[in-house]
Each structure stands twice: as structure tokens, then as C-alpha cells.
Amino acid sequence: MKNAIKRVVVGLAAVLIGGLAFIWVSAYWTYHTAKERLAEFKELDLSKNPAAQSEALHRKYGTKLHPLENCTQGLCRYEIDLSNHFVAALHIIPYTEMNIRFTMYEGSLDIAMLE
């Protein structure tokens, strides 16, 4: 009987530790991704060749980079989203979302907005 109780306690402890590790990793991933994306858009603004930097962002993010309206050759507005929807679906922590919207005008970053 004592062995069964020990197994239950060890099993519950393992589940608790695993759950806490999952939450920590998810929170860290969200933080790291947000920090990385903000740095990329800051680099886009400071770049000597913003057109090449913009193209690199298009290659990296692909379908995650959403045009907001009809783009012309000289002007295009984009949005990229970041959220913790996966871990928030477990109802352990609240849902958080970050949107980055930016406008490229003639190959250069014109406006960037974090929401």
C-alpha cells in the first residue's frame, strides 16, 4: 500500500513539474519571439539597405507577414502577429497578443506601430 501511495505522489509531482516547465518554456518563447521581432524591425529602420532587409523578413516570415491592403510598387502596409494562444488555450494563463504593423514606402520603413 505504501508503494502505491509513493507512486501516486511521485506521479503527481512529475505532472506538476512538467506542467510548470511547459508554462515557463511557453512564456519564455513568447518573450524571446517578441524581443526578436522588435529587434528585426528596429534593424530594418537602421539598415543601409532596407529593401534587402525587407525581403529577408518576407522570406523568414512568409505567410505570417500579412499585407493590410492592396500593395503598390512603392507603398505597402504589413502586419505580423505574436500570441500565446497555444498555452492560453489551456486556461492557465491569460491570452496575450502583440501586433506589429509597419509601412514600407519605396523600399524603406516609413512607419512602425506596436499594438
Protein architecture, described:
With 115 residues, this protein is an alpha+beta fold. It has one domain (2-114). It is 53% helix and 24% strand. It contains three helices and four strands. The protein has helices spanning 2-46, 50-61, 85-88, and strands at 65-67, 75-83, 97-105, 108-114. A four-stranded antiparallel beta sheet has the order 1-2-3-4, with helices on one face. Helix 1 runs antiparallel to helix 2 (50-61). The radius of gyration is 21 Å and the shape is elongated. The model has no long low-confidence stretch (mean pLDDT 80).
Quick summary:
The chain is an alpha+beta fold. The protein contains 3 helices and 4 strands, in the order ααββαββ.
What are its keywords?
single chain; 115 residues; 4 strands; elongated; 24% strand; 53% helix; alpha+beta; 3 helices
